[in-house]
Design a protein that fits this description.
Blueprint: H1 21-30, H2 36-41
Amino acid sequence: SAINRNFPGRSGPGSVYLASPYTVAASALAGRLTSFDTLKSA
């Protein structure tokens, strides 16, 4: 999102996570939030 306000609930009721592209890719492959290093060592 390109919202320039930072307050709880600004993006709705769900959780929002900031992650690196590697973490996002690893999490997409794992189907849950995980680190690239964890996926790489598996």
